[in-house]
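Risk mitigation, structural track. In case the binding assays with nicotinamide-adenine-dinucleotide fail to produce interpretable data, a predicted complex structure has been prepared as a fallback.
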Amino acid sequence: MTSSGDPPVTDLSTLSGRLEGKVALITGGAGGMGRAASVQFAAAGARVAILDIDQQQGESAVAEIESFGASALFINTDVSSATQVEQAIAKVVAKFGPITILFNHAGTIIVKPLHETSDADYDRLMDINVRSAFLVCRAIVRHMLEHNGGSIVITSSIGGEKGFALESLYCMTKGAVLQLARSISTEYRQQGIRCNAVCPGFVKTAHGLREIDELDGLGQKWNEADLTDAQVRICEANEVASAALYLASDESSFINGTALYVDNGWYAKG
Ligand SMILES: NC(=O)c1ccc[n+]([C@@H]2O[C@H](COP(=O)([O-])OP(=O)(O)OC[C@H]3O[C@@H](n4cnc5c(N)ncnc54)[C@H](O)[C@@H]3O)[C@@H](O)[C@H]2O)c1
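Fallback model:
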């Protein structure tokens, strides 16, 4: 299906073999786009480790993956905690062996005018969106340096490049992780580590729907009809997961340091 009509349904059987033999760690892999990626990566043949704070959704993601015969592991982990990240990675390696793919996806949003944003808001969003990426990527780069490289995908956002009113703090965090992706790509390419970013527009997840509600509540207009001008329709979680799968896989072997906009032309349009 096209970018304008009904969104495509992902046929998991078509993914078979694309990540055969890989071990993928997905932060925020229990919900939204992370969940869609957990399922797609597993259907593509990877053994998938989900690090998330949502126990119930994490366990249900593992059950969904195991229902089609693939392997997954959930570890309840706050990825802004260095200790929890280190312990979780050790558990993943003990169960599945060396990690060859990282999808660094966990994150959240605060919608608020900058002049009303508190120090606590700043600390919280920087911890969840930026400190977590630093901790997880640092640990995984160290690990990949010892195990012949791998592929890292970081979730930024169209707000990592564009500026959006009521989202100054959020855009700041997404710009930070986009620059992290670019920097890792140049720093470690000779060691076989690739790193790219996905930059989605509005996606139909708990995060995206809350964001739209809160922006609308503060006077902007981002309900489904008003999205038309920006991106024609709302994006589905599976469409971002497909982009992440491509970047994670060997199919994108010479793509490194790129920002892949998953936004139906919104960024290009200006
Ligand atoms: N939905 C959108 O419109 C949109 C657009 C661009 C970028 N993003 C990015 O996507 C991510 C949000 O994901 P989503 O839209 O799939 O929403 P979501 O809220 O459904 O999923 C986010 C997942 O991250 C987990 N998480 C949150 N804090 C965590 C922590 N400290 N440790 C571990 N796990 C944690 C949540 O439990 C949840 O499972 C963020 O990085 C956000 O910047 C979202």
